[in-house]
Specification:
Blueprint: H1 5-35, H2 45-71, H3 73-130, E1 133-135, E2 140-147, H4 152-171, E3 182-183, H5 186-196, E4 201-208, E5 212-213, E6 219-227, E7 230-232, E8 237-243, H6 250-270, E9 278-280, H7 284-294, E10 300-306, E11 310-311, E12 316-324
Parallel strand pairs: 3-6, 9-12
Antiparallel strand pairs: 1-5, 2-4, 4-6, 7-11, 8-10, 10-12
Helix pairs in contact: 1-2
Length: 327
């Protein structure tokens, strides 16, 4: 507990009086010692008197501190407890600051990386505006089938030559003598050969690893081997949608059809299809319009139906049918 204000004032007055009493005593004692020519440790009497005066001042300070320690518990806590506690708290704070500093460094690294990506994006945009980029990073350049029953090394050589010829026509069409501008890592080829040798049918995708400018002498590519599987079969209903009474107008139906085709594209992508567009067959808008004129006051369903068997890299061909909803 701390001392009260009245006790504090009494203590202050007492210390002032005590200092006032001891100080003259020390001065008188020093003067008498000086006159008596008293010497300590073979020092001159004047220096001895000075030392006595200093000791007296220190005695005053010691008594003051002693009285504070004796009277004030708060002073004792701050003197003997708080300082070590504060030092411990400071040490813990420094330790806690280390992870924050590491996070700051990581964040600064991410910011630098994002700035580099932004600068690269700006450069790409500039190149696009100048019309110099002919191949984009990640763009599929060539697709070919590989069968484990054939000579895989020979197939890869043939595929490489055909892909190289195709890319040369895009990147350096005027240089008829150029060859072997496609560059891929040897370990990628080894991985493809090992995987294809396990059996089955495969699709090899050759993608551009970087943006390529017209006139570049080399194109770095990244091959990707995918299983050549059926994505849809003829007659499969890929997606469907129910038409409500409020949707029975051409504007709403067109919106529903666009939405269905987007869902269909997402669905085939999720199954592993590598095609980016869906081909539609038939004048389905007229068919739907005629159907609605003949049928009224019932619920209808739109269905996107596959018209052929399609594997991983084969086109997806569909038609859109309208029929009565039996539910």
């Amino acid at each position: 507990m701390g001392i009260s204000k009245s006790v504090a004032w009494i203590l202050i007055v007492f210390l002032i009086l005590l200092g006032g009493l001891i100080a003259p005593f020390g001065d008188i004692l020093g003067t008498k010692i000086g006159k008596a020519r008293f010497s300590i440790l073979k020092l001159r009497p004047k220096k001895t008197a000075t030392i006595i005066t200093i000791i007296t001042g220190g005695f005053i300070s010691s008594i003051s501190i002693g009285l504070l320690i004796l009277v004030s518990e708060e002073f004792r806590q701050r003197l003997f407890i708080d300082i070590p506690f504060l030092q411990k708290t400071l040490d813990e704070s420094k330790k806690a600051l280390i992870p924050l500093q590491e996070e700051q460094k990581a964040l600064e690294g991410k910011i630098i990386q994002k700035e580099r990506e932004l600068n690269q994006l700006k450069n790409n945009i500039k190149e696009f505006r100048r019309g110099n980029i002919v191949l984009k990073r990640g763009q599929t350049l060539f697709i070919a089938e590989i069968s484990s029953s054939s000579n895989i090394k020979m197939d890869l050589t043939k595929i490489y030559n055909e892909a190289d010829k195709f890319v040369r026509k895009i990147v350096i069409p005027t240089n008829q003598k150029a060859k072997n501008i496609l560059l891929w890592r040897p370990n990628d080829i080894t991985k493809i050969e090992t995987t294809a040798a396990k059996g089955g049918n495969w699709i090899l995708l050759i993608k551009s690893a970087t943006n390529v400018l017209k006139g570049d002498n080399f194109v770095f590519v990244s091959p990707d081997l995918l299983e050549n599987k059926f994505i849809v079969k003829k007659g499969d209903v890929i997606t469907s949608s129910i038409l409500k009474e409020s949707d029975l107008n051409l504007k709403s139906i067109n919106l529903q059809i666009k939405s269905l085709l987007r869902e269909t594209r997402d669905e085939i992508k999720s199954k592993g299809s590598q095609v980016s567009e869906i081909n539609t067959r038939g004048n389905f808008v007229k068919k739907i319009k005629d159907f609605l004129q003949e049928n009224q006051n019932i619920r209808f369903k739109l269905e996107v139906v596959s018209l052929r068997d399609s594997k991983t890299a084969e086109p997806i061909v569909v038609e859109i049918n309208i029929l009565k909803d039996a539910s």
